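Side project, low priority. Logging it here so it doesn't get lost.
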Amino acid sequence: MEKTYVIKGQPESKWVVVDANGQKLGRLVTTIASILLGKNKPDFTPGVAMGDFVIVINAKGIQVNPTRVKEKVYYRHSNYPGGLKEVSYSHQLEKHPERIIKFAVKGMLPHNKYGNKLMKRLRVYAGAEHPHKGQQPAEIK
């Protein structure tokens, strides 16, 4: 019978920077979700927010399959009759490229309070500049 490992004390969280320029969306988001969950650490414990803070830069340069660019649509609803809104992938990339990565990461995390807590550790920026230089983030390739 295997025993469940439970971390004692406060888990350490570091800051990491991921450059999204020229990377595939799915592969990048899988890596980000794994880092947020803490699965890259040897003392990983499910249900404990022990992952790192992730800063994603150059969200404008994300790569996606050309057919997906034409067909992908993001939906939201205002909870009023006739309140369904839709935004195409190309329009979203043009106006708010950081939302593309945030929506994709949110889909890979648990859909509960734990997932919401992990989403607060994600920072996404369209350009190469970010205001988190004081945290001395490590670069991940």
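Brief comment: The chain has five helices and six strands.
Revisit when time allows.
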